Amino acid sequence: MTSDLLAPLDLAFWNIESAEHPMHLAALGVFTANSPTAGAHAAELLATRAAAVPALRMRIRDVWFPDVRLPLAFGGATREPVADFEPFDHVRLHAPTVDFHTVAGRLMERPLERGRPPWEAHVLPGEDGTSFAVLFKFHHALADGLRALTLAAAVMDPIDMPAPRPRPAEPPRGLLDVRKLPDLVRGTLSDLGRALDIGASVARTTLDASLGARSPAALTSGASGTRRTAGVLVDLDDVHRIRKTVGGTVNDVLIAVVAGALRRWLDERGDGSEGVAPRALIPVSKRRPRTAHPQGNRLSGYLMKLPVDDPDPLRRLRTVRAAMDRNKEAGPNRGAGAVALLADHVLPLGHRLGGPLVSQAARLWFDILVTSVPLPSLGLRLGGCPLAEIYPLAPLAHGQSLAVAVSTYRGSVHYGLVADGEAVPDLERLSAAVTREVRELLVACEV
């Protein structure tokens, strides 16, 4: 595998990282152990298999000097293979624990080492010997949710999956034919016009979403650099019963559950939910699950106000459904979510110089991330041990204290919550509120 230039959005994720806001996404998988040594065996398997996955051997190298082969890469970064790759630098076996999420929270605090391939797998044996967990961490510059899923699946036990549809061969990013320079200049001017259009759309949508909205302080506290994680299991059949009663999509129900849970949590902790309508960024993948896309990120997104202040659970769901319908009608290339597309119109040096400023600006256009990561319906195994639970974990943007990620797997919905440990010390209370909100929606649907 040869080196290639990071795509603009990957480069943006690489440059907005800070010590308090590491830009890795993760998943905490809980496996049923078939022996007391299943965790140690899993660590050995992960290291052995990782060595055979080319994408896991790739590091990201900053480009600080002009290169005749990469004339537009100054200030950018390349993805390149590591000749002396050592998988046990990335796969770590920890001491037995009784609480996987407590350990995962501490591990989520630590940025990935930037001088080597930006991923880790932490194996956490259960103290009772009946289970173990694996925390997979991937830098967002390496993968979006679907790409991270592909990489994680590559080190699991083999399963029969449909072959991905091939894509036409693409030249390495960054190579320039000087004969095409006039076309490049014209394309750059066209890109500038497109960027201005996208920027105007982002500004309009962000302003509309901000009018009349109150963001709770608990979601926008200063960063402490600490992390807590929690997981919630919801029966997928219950979600379908709610959807069939009210209409819309499963995702509409899952977002509405987040709005209702936030309402309960804010009221219980004394912050109050009156007038609260936090702006949620809903990422939209532009990657097809069965298509062999290149590495990196293919994302846009939607922006919506969560109806936290509405006391009626069914009305909250209808509000979410209407907002998502409007977003889908407009499409993922417009609105605040399209800010990701702006990255394609910025030269690498602009990403390098503007990264810290962009990271500070996230708070201006959304308050909370609510993302969905699809998983295959087939059961996954590691060393013959079945995957019983899987909690996706998203990074926290600057100025935000909570991120919610959701996956459905084998009849259950798995909510993964990541919070700033000092701003949200009662994350377990929010987890309980998710479960109660589903019950309330079920009761409301039966009336």
How would you sum up this structure, described in words?
The chain has 447 residues and is of the alpha+beta class. The protein has helices spanning 8-15, 38-50, 100-109, 145-153, 181-210, 236-246, 250-268, 313-330, 339-342, 348-365, 427-446; strands at 4-5, 24-32, 58-62, 77-81, 91-93, 119-125, 131-139, 227-235, 279-285, 299-305, 368-372, 381-382, 385-393, 402-409, 412-420. The strands form 3 sheets. Strands 5-6-7-2-13-12 form a 6-stranded mixed sheet, sandwiched between helices. A 6-stranded mixed sheet has the order 8-15-14-11-9-10, with helices on both faces. The longest helix is centred in the middle third of the chain and has 30 residues, at 181-210. It is globular. 46% of the residues are buried. Mean pLDDT is 80; it is low at 167-207, 289-293 and 345-355.
Summarize the structure.
The chain has 447 residues and is α+β, with helices and mostly antiparallel strands. Helix content is 36%, strand content 21%.
Q: By helix and strand content, what is the structural category?
A: alpha+beta
Mean pLDDT across all amino acids: 80
Overall body shape = globular
- Please, what is the oligomeric state? single chain
Q: Tell how many strands the DSSP assignment holds.
A: 15
**Rg calculated over all Cα atoms:** 22 Å
Please, how many helices?
A: 11
Main beta sheet strand tally, sense and closure? 6 strands, mixed
> Strand order, biggest sheet?
5-6-7-2-13-12
Which strand-content bin applies to the residues? 15-25%
Q: What are the low-pLDDT stretches, counting only 5+ consecutive residues below 50?
A: 167-207, 289-293, 345-355
Domain count = 2
Helix content: 25-40%
Secondary-structure element pattern, one letter each: EHEHEEEHEEHHEHHEEHHHEEEEEH
User: Whole-Å distance between the termini?
Assistant: 59 Å
